[in-house]
Amino acid sequence: MTRTTPLGAVVRGLVAGAVGTLAMDALLYWRYKRGGGKDGFFDWEFSSTVHTWDEAPAPAQVGRRLYEGLFQRKLPDSQAALVNNITHWGYGILNGAAYGVLAGSLPKPRAAYGPPFGAGVWLTGYAVLPPAGLYKPIYEYDRVTLAKDLGAHLVYGSATAATFAVLQKRD
């Protein structure tokens, strides 16, 4: 197998990151339903219950800060759900592109690289979001919460790496 071009690695990574994000969301939705959640998948996925910034999760808050910092304009509450989805999916897809560049430079990308990649994405969140005031420091979370979050990111990393490896074989 020959190595892919940088552009090919990025494109495959973007696709793989989208598949990884969907896989992670499928797990999170399954947990939500098991916990008694009532919304259908699309309502849940597209944050239909998020109506204000006070209700918005961390991805929305990151996106809001980026937008307001860049454009020096306030985003209205009505944009919280949309910004949540753009930021969540954008982060997953762009991390996939970064994975694609790294894995595409190796002689043979392997699905086994997925769990360490997912763990790295997970750890990055706990390194960046607490100083931004959006998460507590990692040591303030209980083991169950951290394990569930890590598990979801391992699914993301595994699905991203497996998808990239399959796409690379089609080269």
UniProtKB/TrEMBL annotation:
The chain crosses the membrane at residues 6-30. Keywords: Membrane, Transmembrane, Transmembrane helix. This is DUF1440 domain-containing protein.
